[in-house]
Design goal:
The complex is a heterodimer of chains A (297) and B (250).
Chain A lengths: L3 E10 L2 E11 L4 E5 L6 H9 L6 E6 L2 E2 L4 H6 L1 E4 L11 H11 L6 H10 L15 H13 L5 E5 L7 H16 L3 E5 L3 H7 L2 E6 L2 E7 H6 L4 E7 L12 E3 L4 E6 L2 H13 L4 E7 L3 H9 L2
Helix pairs in contact in A: 3-5
Chain B lengths: L1 H14 L2 H22 L12 H32 L3 H4 L5 H27 L10 H25 L3 H17 L12 H7 L3 H14 L6 H25 L6
Helix pairs in contact in B: 1-5, 2-3, 2-5, 3-5, 3-6, 3-7, 3-9, 5-6, 5-10, 6-9, 6-10, 9-10
The chains are: A alpha/beta (297), B mainly alpha (250).
The complex binds adenosine-5'-diphosphate and magnesium ion.
């Protein structure tokens, strides 16, 4: 059974089509990144899982439960951290988390609540009113609220926006531990390097359509080709290499590198021409470059 | 458990600020009682043997109950919507029925607490005989229930605080003031008297007065029927709104 299944999901807002026949699966145990520029439909897709929005057509399931027909089971199986920073100013952190547990039918949840608070670095703020927390702390409470019922599937919609770098690291360490403990994680993020280091699978949305769905390694592999940067002893390269040059001017050049065999050929050419190497570097495109590349296609 | 948690939260949120949500309306009612019973009280006796000061008590108590039970549900919902924190009750597996009942009951509790407070402080002015306590309690609960349901409708419908204020000023206030809080409707000109008979709030107050004094303008059974039907109708509308996700789930 897949953790999440989207089957031909369409969502119209009036005549505007926010999602257009989106279908994909997230498998149990995945650390899944949902990427796409602003307005691509990521939040709308997540809202459909939590019942905050209803699909115009198509179906979605969480752990096998239909999000409309079986909404109670589906919502018990998923913890969603919404994108917008929201909080109830009437209560303390602990009260907020106790109420949230109660909404999921869980009594006496303090042990787990304490464990979450410890992990997100809020143990000392347990009895502080929500109003008195900084933005980053409120955001972390929202993460805690999504975890009170130990959901097998955890969805984070841009969770690190507004959280400072250090805390971002500890938050991800915690999420990664949850993933290792068997929770399925789905996240949307602006910080592509986060998706690159954390996730094993990546989907890309553009204007409501799914344009890529791949293992991260595959996606990173077939992105734009690798490139080679060399610093030589000469001011010019042999003519045979000129078609490969993408930038730089003597003695520093940048060359397109189709694959690793191409490297040997290039080095051979240089040797034959009697040109020495002072420095050499092979660079792999990062997710950001692949992302930008796909979005412009 | 889910329902009980939501109810507990809704009660706690007004109780935490009881100074504004309970003490303030009780004080307001006390001032009305003070001013009206002294300025008009000497000259009228609305029912034989019932002083104006005593007559005023159930009217004021009911008016305060109705306003506060409306305010409870509507302000809680509009606030949660405007701040966005409503997602925290939309994401869990709460059914629309649980959602409805929790907000409704919390409103009734607030209404009753305020109502009992108003009665308690106004007893210094006059002591109604409380002839039919069961009728009395029934109309208290039903009246608050009607306004609690209306509060949920208003809170869901309104997108801004001022829309809610409009709802309050143009619907709730006229209905309560044209219902015989301060007078027996028999003292009104025929047109307004006839109009009052179309106002469900009139029956809430009249039924409540019957519980207090054993006399009223309409029969308590008629009042019960009107108030009961009004409640059933509003509850039906509210449940339908919640079930369809109107303005809450797009
Ligand atoms: N409630 C709504 N009414 C009308 N349009 C909406 C609504 N919610 C989202 N949209 C539109 O749907 C598109 C997708 O939005 P969203 O899912 O928030 O994108 P993302 O999260 O990828 O930035 C946007 O163009 C947005 O303006
Ligand atoms: Mg978004």
């Amino acid at each position: 059974m897949s953790a999440i299944v989207f089957d031909r999901i369409c969502k119209q807002f009036g005549s505007f089509s926010a999602l257009d026949e989106v279908s994909f699966r997230v498998e149990q145990g995945d650390f899944f990144a949902l990427l796409g520029p602003n307005g691509a439909g990521k939040t709308t897709l997540i809202s459909i899982l939590g019942g905050l929005a209803r699909a115009t057509s198509g179906t979605a399931t969480v752990m096998g439960y239909d999000v409309v027909q079986d909404y109670r089971a589906a919502r018990s199986a998923i913890g969603i951290v919404p994108q917008e920073l929201v909080f109830d100013p009437f209560f303390t952190v602990r009260e907020t988390l106790r109420f949230q547990s109660g909404y999921f039918g869980i009594r006496h949840n303090d042990d787990w609540i304490d464990e979450i608070l410890l992990n997100i670095g809020l143990a000392e703020k347990a009895d502080t009113n929500m109003r008195k927390l900084s933005g980053g702390m409120k955001r972390r409470v929202m993460v805690a609220q999504a975890l009170v019922h130990r959901p097998p599937v955890i969805v984070l919609d841009e969770p690190t926006a507004g959280v400072d770098v250090e805390l971002r690291q500890s938050l991800w360490a915690f999420i990664r531990r949850l993933n290792e403990a068997g929770h399925t994680i789905v996240l949307t993020t602006h910080y592509l390097e986060e998706a690159e280091t954390l996730c094993n699978r990546i989907a890309m949305l553009k204007q409501g359509r799914l344009i890529a769905l791949e293992d991260k390694d595959t996606l990173m592999g077939h992105g734009s080709a690798r490139s080679l940067r060399i610093v030589t002893t000469a001011q010019a390269l042999p003519d045979s290499l000129m078609p490969l040059v993408t930038g730089g001017s003597g003695p520093e050049f940048e060359l397109k590198l189709a694959d690793c065999c191409a490297l040997e050929d290039i080095l051979g050419e240089l040797r034959r021409a009697g040109i020495g190497l002072k420095d050499i570097e092979v660079t792999k495109p990062d997710l950001e470059e692949i992302f930008v590349d796909m979005m412009h296609r | 458990m889910r329902f009980y948690t939501l109810l507990q939260k809704e009660i706690l949120r007004f109780w935490r600020v009881a100074f504004q949500t309970v003490a303030a309306p009780v004080l307001t009612a006390l001032l009305y009682q003070l001013i009206f019973s002294h300025s008009i009280g000497q000259h009228v006796e609305p029912y034989p043997g019932v002083s104006y000061a005593a007559f005023l008590i159930p009217g004021l108590a009911m008016m305060s109950m109705l306003q506060n039970s409306f305010a409870n549900a509507s302000s809680s919902l509009i606030q949660a919507k405007v701040t966005g924190s409503i997602v925290f009750i939309l994401l869990p597996p709460l059914s629309y029925l649980e959602f409805f009942l929790a907000h409704l009951l919390a409103s009734i509790v607030r209404g009753l607490v305020v109502g009992i407070g108003v009665i308690a402080v106004t007893l210094f002015f006059a002591m109604p005989p409380f002839s039919h306590p069961v009728w009395l309690l029934l109309f208290m609960v039903l009246g608050c229930g009607v306004m609690g349901a209306l509060g949920i409708i208003g809170g869901i419908w309104a997108e801004k605080f001022d829309q809610l204020a409009g709802f309050q000023n143009f619907i709730i206030m006229p209905l309560t003031f044209l219902s015989g809080v301060f007078y027996s409707i028999h003292s009104l000109p025929p047109f307004w008297q006839a109009l009052s008979h179309w106002n469900p709030v009139f029956y809430m107050i009249d039924g409540f007065r019957y519980g207090c004094f054993g006399v009223s303008d309409a029969s308590p059974w008629q009042s019960l029927a009107v108030v009961g039907v009004t409640f059933a109708l509003l509850a039906g509308i509210t449940l339908q709104m919640l079930r369809s996700g109107y303005k809450l789930r797009h």
